[in-house]
Design a protein that fits this description.
With 192 residues, the chain is mainly beta. The chain has helices at residues 2-16, 79-85, and strands spanning 19-23, 29-36, 40-46, 49-55, 64-70, 98-110, 113-122, 125-134, 140-141, 147-158, 180-191. It starts with a helix and ends with a strand.
């Protein structure tokens, strides 16, 4: 009886351990879109996504995420606009070179979907955000023999809540840039 209980406990502990992963910055990005003049959508992205994830596929609640995004990598395809986005009116890259995210809780939303709640810090302002995640994908092994999984995430934030308030009023009464920012994350993880 004791031997059976010991074997059962050992098997259960093997399956209960979260697995450690790191974000692959070469194959991960944080994309965003905002309305410009309320008539068109401007899209951009950040590279330099780094971080670590502890993930237990048997227990999503045990998952933890810590990540940073290098704000100097902002790219909208227009160098002048990118330079403006690095100024104190937007991301203030000189004072705050990275955005930070730290998870608080993870819940299963549906099969293959998670809800990740955590603190996002932009320009030294921290607000709670909720990311809707698709994945993680099935684990694969790449050509270098590394185990990998992927996850996609979406959310919307108010840039004003993070202190990014630049927004000249137009003669017609509209605004230059929408407050709402849509965010899409494409993350590839490498098993440690």
């Amino acid at each position: 009886m004791k031997l059976r209980w010991l074997i059962f406990s050992l098997i259960a502990s093997l399956h209960a351990e979260p697995v450690s992963w790191r974000i692959d910055p070469l194959h991960s990005s944080a994309q965003f879109s905002v309305k410009h003049l309320m008539i068109s959508t401007v899209r951009g992205q950040f590279g330099g996504v780094k971080g670590s994830v502890l993930y237990d596929p048997k227990n999503a609640a045990a998952t933890t995420v810590e990540a940073t995004i290098d704000c100097s990598t902002v790219n909208t395809g227009e160098p002048k606009r990118d330079a403006d986005l690095k100024t104190a009116e937007f991301f203030d890259v000189k004072r705050y070179p990275v955005m930070k995210f730290k998870s608080k809780r993870v819940e299963t939303a549906a099969p293959g979907n998670l809800k990740l709640t955590g603190d996002l810090t932009i320009n030294a302002v921290t607000r709670e955000v909720v990311l809707d995640l698709e994945g993680p994908s099935p684990q694969i092994r790449d050509a270098q023999g590394r185990d990998k999984i992927g996850v996609s995430g979406v959310t919307k934030i108010s840039r004003k809540e993070f202190g990014i308030t630049y927004n000249p009023i137009l003669e017609t009464g509209g605004v230059t840039v929408s407050d709402e920012v849509s965010i899409i994350l494409e993350i590839e993880l490498i098993k440690n």
